[in-house]
Amino acid sequence: MKLNRNVGLLVLAVASIGGAAGVAYAQSTAPATTTTTTAPEHGGHMWHRHHGDLLVGMTLRATKQLNLTADQQASIKTILTTARAQAKAAHASGQAPVDMAALGNPGDPNYATALQSAKTLAATRIQNESELQGQIYNVLTADQKAQLPAVLATMKAQAQQRRAVWEQRHATGTAGAG
Fold first, then answer.
1. First vs last Cα of the chain: how many Å apart?
2. Least crowded by CB within 10 Å, which of 46, 57, 62, 91?
3. Using an 8 Å Cβ cutoff, are 54 and 68 in contact?
4. Partners of residue 38 on adjacent β-strands
5. pLDDT, tens digit, 9 for 90 and up, residues 42-91
6. Rounded distance, CA 68 to CA 83, Å?
7. pLDDT tens digit string along 139-154?
8. Is 82 exposed, middle or buried (CB count within 10 Å of its CB: 0-12, 13-18, 19+)?
9. What CA–CA distance (Å, rounded) separates 76 from 130?
10. Which of 149, 161, 169, 160 is nearest to 66 (CA)?
11. Domains in the chain: boundaries
């Protein structure tokens, strides 16, 4: 059962990359991007993916509460623009995506290769995100860096509170099922 759980988590991680474009990007050596992608219109509203990936997105959301100067904001924007350009170049190089059909079927003869590709992709993505996060962190002043743990703790508490409310709302709907 542990293998199935790990495969499921890995498939989820790979799927979150955003398809072939994300796979190609993450396999590159370019830093992670935080592009804003636009989904189809729904009811006149445009849905956006804000601030990209987990590590970088969390850091960017936290910086909103650190009263960045205009120069700091410009520096971060330049970092993100550069990362975005590098990701586009990696995508243009046409790197092959992970075979999701093989990855979803442990009996597939190409499963081991697909699994290794997904593991490599995940490790590369985390490394790239970490590097981009470090570049953003280096823009902060010493005081802002000192404030960051408290801001992140507040964000974590708010997320836990939202999760508890969600679980409470959905617990009554699933209590009879099963």
1. 19
2. 46
3. no
4. 48
5. 344 333 344 456 778 888 999 999 999 999 999 999 999 998 888 888 77
6. 20
7. 999 999 999 999 999 9
8. middle
9. 15
10. 149
11. 2-140
